[in-house]
Design goal:
Elements: E1 15-21, E2 28-40, E3 44-57, H1 60-74, E4 78-81, H2 90-101, E5 108-110, H3 120-130, E6 137-138, H4 144-152, H5 167-181, H6 188-192, H7 197-208
Parallel strand pairs: 1-4, 3-6, 4-5
Antiparallel strand pairs: 1-2, 2-3
Helix pairs in contact: 1-2, 3-5
Length: 210
Amino acid sequence: MPKEFAKWPGVKFERVYIGIAWPAEKPGFIVVIGEEATSIEAYGREYRHYVLEEVEEENLHQLLRRCSELIGTYNAERVIGRYDEHVYPQIPRCNNEARKLGLPEIRLDTAPYSKDKLISTHINLLQDKLSSAKQSLYLGEGSILSGRIESEVLMDAIYKATDEQYPATAALGYVISVMVSWPPNRSDEDDSEDGDYEYRKRTACRSTGY
């Protein structure tokens, strides 16, 4: 059943996903994204994405705690981030605390094209979805991301940019990439056939709780 939230009145969201980037050179970042599906006669289904909430946090433990809280607040189906061997051991510990507090557990899915930390592919996607000619990504008034993306997508060293340098943009790019790559009518089994590394890692993470 579609979900509705006060920030975007009248918009019915079919999916809610969360993007997350880890603290490093800058504070970590969480962005909650809602997806609206509309029907266009000539093109079939069109998907629009809306920022529902943003969180910036330097402390990894607190970042994970807020993520767990936001899963519950928005009934989010998936959390998307980069696999990090130093971060992953912290997730089961956070989940143990979450269970005691009655909060949802975090089941992290690995973002596509994130293994090397570079985010140029994700920034190119954000540029496309934010372009005035065919805008399908809406940040909302007062969004932290608005100022960040405007500066980061125009920088000269875009192809060397990492999620550690630009966590806000990375968190948004990661979750949008997954929502675009795996629309509601496409199953995980469809993606397993191409032998993609990120798919295998994502599946492993989901099955182990890491």
